[in-house]
UniProtKB/TrEMBL annotation:
GO molecular function: glycerol dehydrogenase (acceptor) activity; quinoprotein glucose dehydrogenase activity
Lineage: Bacteria, Pseudomonadati, Pseudomonadota, Alphaproteobacteria, Sphingomonadales
Gene3D superfamilies to which the protein is assigned, alphabetical: Quinoprotein alcohol dehydrogenase-like superfamily
Region (Disordered): 56-75, 175-196
Annotated organism of origin: Sphingobium indicum BiD32
Protein name: Broad-specificity glycerol dehydrogenase, subunit SldA
Length: 345
């Protein structure tokens, strides 16, 4: 839900159709999470929100400010978004890394969510275009009245590039060349020529440091949360994903420390109160206790699990299946494995 989108805040998640509990009986509804972190609950017969949607003021600065909307919608039901970034959120493997990130923060344009794009300096997009919630959506347990939502918590560090400058710098460039830095500047990123417009764009997704490739924002970078379906209140919330496949210079640390990693792919909830989910960049598939949020089982997939698992039953036996295909953007191993598990009797 966004007006005059210049942040790639499309609705990447699937809508979930449920009968929403209310004081006047159940209402045919759909629940839709957004990249900004807001969760919308709509009457699917009329499209009207079941919880108020407020208008929040949005900055009108940067390039072509007259084209920016003065307000943006915001759901009052629930948000997965975190408070605005501050310089204190800058992080690094060493004091030098942190200093570089703090300098970059001070030099950038940042006015909170919906900071308009700028061409004279970098602008911070937070959350980045991977969410919040991107593909995978949410899972709902209608019996216990719980929503399970995994989410990302990462910024982008971007700049619009005037057309003449983009042509001088050779936009576009092959992906293999763009990964080491954009326009000769520090940090992993990508260049999009945006042909037919006055500007190209240089994107540093996740806001990475030069050389090491580590992220400027402190962890966690992703989480998973249980939400009361009726009220929208948080039941539990935790960092999601370990550092075992992440590290400086792209070298896996193999450390099983829960730092909260970027994640894409949804969850499935069973009648027995288990949440099955992969999604994170550590290539693990997990079973999480719906009531407590604690991991009760996990296994290593042969490739990235950026997909939503499926649970089904045959002849009284329950099975769990997930496609382990990986994803280039998530930088997980690519594969073509369809992995199946049989649940104990």
């Amino acid at each position: 839900m966004v007006r005059r989108d210049v942040w790639d805040y499309d609705l990447g998640a699937q809508a979930t159709l449920i009968d929403f509990p209310s004081g006047r009986g159940s209402v045919p509804a759909l629940i839709l999470p957004s990249k900004q972190g807001d969760i919308y609950v709509l009457d699917r017969r009329t499209g009207r929100p079941l919880f108020p949607v407020q208008e929040r003021a949005a900055p009108r600065t940067g390039v072509e400010p007259q084209l920016r909307s003065p307000t943006q919608p915001s759901s009052t039901y629930h948000t997965l978004a975190f408070p605005q970034l501050t310089e204190a959120d800058m992080w690094g493997m060493s004091p030098i890394d942190q200093m570089i990130c703090r300098i970059q923060f001070r030099r950038a344009e940042y006015r909170g969510m919906y900071t308009p794009p700028t061409a004279d300096k970098r602008f911070i997009e937070y959350p980045g275009y991977n969410g919040g919630t991107d593909w995978g959506g949410i899972a709902v347990d209608p019996v216990h009245g719980v929503i399970v939502a995994n989410y990302n918590n990462m910024p982008n560090y971007n700049r619009l590039v005037p057309r003449q400058e983009a042509e001088r710098l050779g936009f576009p460039v092959p992906r293999s060349e763009a990964r080491g830095g954009d326009m000769g500047e520090a940090g992993h990123g990508s260049r999009d020529p945006q042909k037919g417009t006055p500007y190209a764009i240089a994107v540093n997704p996740g806001w990475r440091l030069p050389l090491t490739g580590l992220l400027c924002k402190r962890p966690p970078y992703g989480g998973i949360r249980a939400i009361d379906l009726r009220t929208g209140r948080t039941i539990w919330d935790r960092a999601f994903g370990t550092a075992r496949r992440n590290g400086p210079w792209g070298i896996a640390s193999m450390l099983p420390l829960t730092i909260g990693t970027p994640n894409n792919g949804g969850a499935v909830v069973t009648a027995g109160g288990l949440v099955f989910i992969a999604a994170a960049t550590d290539n693990l598939i997990r079973a999480i206790n719906l009531k407590t949020g604690k991991t009760v089982w996990q296994d290593t997939l042969p490739a990235g699990g950026q997909a939503t698992p499926m649970v089904y039953e045959i002849n009284g036996k329950q099975y769990l299946v997930i496609m382990a295909g990986g994803h280039h953007f998530m930088e997980t191993p690519i594969g073509d494995a369809l992995v199946a598990y049989a649940l104990p009797d």
